[in-house]
Protein 1
Amino acid sequence: MSRVKDEARAEYKRKDLGKGVRGKYLERYAKGTNLVLLNDKVAKAFPTTEAVNEALLGLLALTEQTARITSRSKRPPRKTPEA
């Protein structure tokens, strides 16, 4: 593995920066984000955030319409006349 040349300015000393803490802000960051990894095929079909959101919002609207159409009545079933 090749080493990247340290291009920090001379006035910046590592010892002055203190000890770093891995993942220090991870929990706070995770609460404010909603990252999703897309399958390669999906990423090609929806290359932008807007395209993904538009498609998903359309799918949600469709499911809501379908649920209203196919939902069963809340009325009790009719009594059939006895023979």
Protein 2
Amino acid sequence: MRISLERSGGFAGIRLTTTVDTDSLADDEARTLQQLVESSDFFHLPATLMPQKPQPDRFQYTLTVETDDKSHTVTAAETALPAKARPLFEWLAQRARRA
């Protein structure tokens, strides 16, 4: 599985990006990431998740998950992320900050 995350916006407007391939991760990290994708129900999220009223200085995420048989991209405002998807987005953002 290959996952790409781009986070933009925020007060400082600093872009954060990362691409992770589970084949290159340690087994425990790959399992964690797989579980986060599954528990977020990522492939059933709509392509766009935005609040009705835009909020300045908030983050916007674009996340793409690719497997051998499917690919899905979600663009979401941080305030519109479903609770079940937040751990996935946060795990990837934290990994991008370490890179």
Protein 3
Amino acid sequence: MLQFYAAVYNRALLENGLRIRDKMAVVTDPRSFPKRRSLFQRLGITKYAYISIFDSVERQTALLRDFKPDAIKGYASSLLILAAEINGLEREIKPRLVFTSAELLEDSSRKIISSAFDAELFNLYACSEFSLLALECKAHDGYHINADSVLMEFLDGEAVASGEKGMVVCAGLYNDVMPLIRYELKDVADPSEGKCSCGVSLPLIKSIEGRADDFLVATDGRLISPTVFFPYPFDSVDWIRQFRVIQEGRRKLVIQVAPKKAPGAQSRSQIIEAAERKIRGLFGEDMEVSFDFVDEIPLEPSGKLRKVISRINSGKRFRLS
């Protein structure tokens, strides 16, 4: 089974331009480092370097400089942090390809990462239960579902129509040990009946909205997708390095802000006031909004950086309508 899932992953990488002899740097949680090298690695045909996301940015950058990868794969948030450092290295790190996975990738992060590495970026949609579920192709017009390894449904009480949002439910087609049938991933995505211009006939997902648990709730009960915060409400602010939205209660939002430089008092006040107006306009005028300025926004124990967190009891049945 592991060999099959490895083949599914490698198919996605090779389809998007990776070459057998390319050097690949994988920036990930060290707990997922392979226990032993593959046969191709032992024979020197493929060359992989595994870099811990818990290492300092300086050490990660140094390892990348030494390894000189042709391709880099990692969490979107990890590569976004690296991108800020890479920008000042005068093209010392020059991958041809960048692959992101394990997290929601928003357009602003895609542009920053792709620009910093000066490389084409492909996003992969995967989970631990079914390995690689879907992949971007060179057309970058959605995600091709690996229909030969997983059956995917999109439900909101019942199957949703093309272009509508639904919970992702999967059945694995290659697992003789512990078959998973109609397994709910807690992710939200919208399927598409369209045909991709790349010519591949695999079914498509138009977009991936994120985890259902990270949907926020307006004061009138509407569900707010986490994707609205990329980069809203700080659309044109250059002094904010990172921010995170936390819903502490049905009528309370906390916005953590990690500035990359100290703004003027007047500028900061105006930007925060404008951001608060935008948030109240989206969530309701009676939503309490507070801003918490921090030096760093902490990573999750997994090493990922969750940008939107809901602490409301999620025992309610998730409904998009």
Protein 4
Amino acid sequence: MKKILFTYDLNKDSPSDKWGRVREAIIRKFPTHWCRLTTTWIVETQLSAVQMRDWLATLLDSNDELFVVDITGSDAAWLGIDAKGATWLREVLNR
């Protein structure tokens, strides 16, 4: 399985429930996920970065911003992540 990191900014003045709708859609589609930095996620998936971008684009407005990268097999480091988050990162990124 690939590990895809993505982050987005919802720029349009929109109802505050849009943040929740986007979050819930991601959680439903990707059972193995990590989100500790508001709109920065790591998910485990078979999708490519391009396929992930295209799927996420269906949740976003035309002026929102999105960055998607495949981090499978990449070296990783972090700071300030609690023990639970660090354990998840070590376990999933090292699969």
